[in-house]
């Protein structure tokens, strides 16, 4: 498998150097693997920190900036960052108002963020945690006890970031972040496996003519292998799985997310089927985002995430955000 | 080759329906294949129109909106739109101040835009054309007499759009667009071929362990096939080719563009090598954009575009833009 890299060992460091050079509004510590808002810590503001394995870009480093994350700590590809990294990130954004950790539900991340929170609490920093576990495909998986955290991470980071930016206190930012997660559900599908730089070959075997329904963002097995389906059939299966489990309520935020290797032309086409089916099922779509936001390296495929959104969530979603991966209103 | 589509015949229409549903600020005519700003024609403003084959998303439909294009006309995948489409787009954005056509240098596009301009002139619409031909890799190619138009299209569309938005007259918008093209150079590399929906298999044959230096955005042959190289070596070759030909001058706008199938993690790493080499060669980088902006479906690979930018160009680059694919300042 050909890659646009020097050697596998420096992939994450090289990417961080590239991020630093392209985005002078961020402070990137390549040595310690931290991406921090240049103006951090922002006085009297709750700090919002996330992190996880690399390979899901723009998640998380690409979502650092005004109105979203204050800091991100990227691990090696598909590998949790270490507690020290997370504790450094926490200290870097701590202004006295406390810090929220946004943690995707993978065993390594959960364990390490727990240790990081203890380290931070030892330093007198008040920490709350929100666990993202929106993937309805499977309960328990290769890297997870319970549901996996996937596309809803974007919603949680955006909404929590907006509320923190507006000056809300730690407990309210944490409660709202939890509400976003509770109101969100995702389902993903893989048309191809992905290839990590270290392995250099596909991480799992997906025969020609088959797809993986309910795949995880590291290529973890989903619900079922099937013969190839049309975009419309895939949208039907994804929305069946999501809507069966989604709390009833108002309109939704819709994320039609590419896994990294699927062209935008296909994603927009897939999105048209998702929107049509939602219309038939009388689910109102308040906002739509189509693109590669929570990726799995070069995996072909897509995921759908819905989040039931009340007026407050929509207002926070629409609030200005300025990050490399998501920007509007400023 | 598995794709997230229904049938090849409806790929472009389905994508346009998805674009319409996701972006209520655009008017999408699926039947006639037009993407137009909802507030077009904007009184007293020069209209800015582009178009070309589909498969390069977000180019061009994703660049319609305030501060960039007024309309785009997408053709079938890798196929020029027809003169009627272009003439309709021109009429839809014509407010009396004239219309600029931004045309990538491919024989079909050039011919059809010429006919469209004649149709529009017959209706009393003043039309100017700027031809984009920034690709230094080859002169004359599969679909082109002269150099191909690639990454600089983004720069031309952004800068011309900003100047038109500021109320400049047609001749000035056209002259500035031409200046941006003259000050821009690109070089692309493919690590894999791309697959069109109609063909369903790779459009060219690139053996494992080889890459194509100087590839075009439809997979047209470049300068040379070579054994696989590191990201750093590729950056060296690309910048050698570009800098040899770039007019001397001030700092540059830098676009490190993904062809569609290369993960953002790799693109940022590649960009770090590009920036380091530019530093060694004393080329100042004023602004950097890293991502999938001018793509070739699922092709793995990247291109580099530099544009020498004076104060005016930088001001126009920084001006607010609100499109699905590029947004800042609003």
UniProtKB/TrEMBL annotation, chains A, B:
* EC numbers: 2.7.1.121
Q: Name one GO biological process term.
A: glycerol catabolic process
Any keyword Kinase?
Answer: yes
**Record field: catalytic activity:** dihydroxyacetone + phosphoenolpyruvate = dihydroxyacetone phosphate + pyruvate
GO molecular function, a single term: glycerone kinase activity
The record's section on SUPFAM superfamilies has: DAK1/DegV-like
Q: What is this enzyme's class at the first EC digit?
A: transferase
Please verify whether the record's keywords include DNA-binding.
no
- CC annotations in GO: cytosol
Q: Which residues form the DhaK domain?
A: 7-328
Domain of life per record: Bacteria
Q: Which pathway does the protein contribute to?
A: Polyol metabolism; glycerol degradation
Keywords for this entry?
Glycerol metabolism, Kinase, Transferase
Coiled-coil residue spans = none
Q: PROSITE patterns attached here?
A: DHAK
**What Pfam families does its record include?**
Dak1
Matching entries from PANTHER family are given as: TRIOKINASE/FMN CYCLASE (PTHR28629), TRIOKINASE_FMN CYCLASE (PTHR28629:SF4)
Query: How does the annotation summarize its subunit structure?
Result: Homodimer. The dihydroxyacetone kinase complex is composed of a homodimer of DhaM, a homodimer of DhaK and the subunit DhaL.
Q: What is this protein called?
A: phosphoenolpyruvate--glycerone phosphotransferase
The scientific name of the source species is: Wenjunlia vitaminophila (Streptomyces vitaminophilus)
């Amino acid at each position: 498998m050909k890659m646009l890299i020097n050697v596998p060992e420096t992939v994450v460091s090289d990417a961080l150097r590239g991020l630093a050079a392209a985005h002078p509004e961020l402070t990137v510590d390549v040595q310690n693997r931290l991406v921090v808002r240049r103006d951090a810590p922002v006085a009297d503001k709750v700090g919002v920190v996330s992190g996880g394995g690399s390979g899901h870009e723009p998640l998380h480093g690409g979502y650092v900036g005004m109105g979203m994350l204050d800091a991100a700590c990227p691990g090696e590809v598909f590998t949790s960052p270490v507690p020290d990294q997370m504790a450094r990130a926490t200290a870097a954004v701590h202004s006295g108002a406390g810090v929220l950790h946004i943690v995707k539900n993978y065993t390594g991340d959960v364990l390490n963020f727990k240790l990081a929170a203890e380290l931070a609490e030892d330093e007198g920093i008040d920490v709350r945690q929100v666990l993202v576990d929106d993937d309805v495909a499977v309960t328990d998986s290769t890297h997870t006890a319970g549901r996996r955290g996937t596309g809803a991470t974007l919603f949680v980071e955006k909404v929590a970031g907006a509320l923190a930016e507006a000056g809300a206190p730690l407990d309210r930012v944490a409660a709202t972040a939890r509400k976003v997660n509770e109101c969100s559900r995702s389902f993903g599908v893989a048309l191809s496996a992905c290839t990590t730089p270290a392995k250099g070959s596909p991480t799992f075997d997906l025969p020609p003519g088959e797809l993986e329904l309910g795949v995880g963002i590291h290529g973890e097995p989903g619900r079922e292998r099937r013969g190839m389906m049309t975009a419309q059939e895939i949208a039907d299966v994804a929305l069946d799985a999501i809507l069966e489990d989604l709390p009833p309520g108002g309109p939704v935020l819709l994320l039609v997310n590419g896994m990294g290797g699927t062209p935008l032309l296909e994603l927009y086409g897939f999105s048209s089927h998702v929107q049509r089916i939602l219309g038939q099922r009388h689910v109102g779509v308040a906002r739509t985002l189509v693109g590669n936001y929570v990726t799995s390296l070069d995996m072909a495929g897509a995921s759908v995430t819905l989040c039931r959104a009340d007026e407050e969530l929509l207002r926070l979603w629409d609030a200005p955000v300025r990050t490399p991966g998501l920007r509007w209103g400023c």
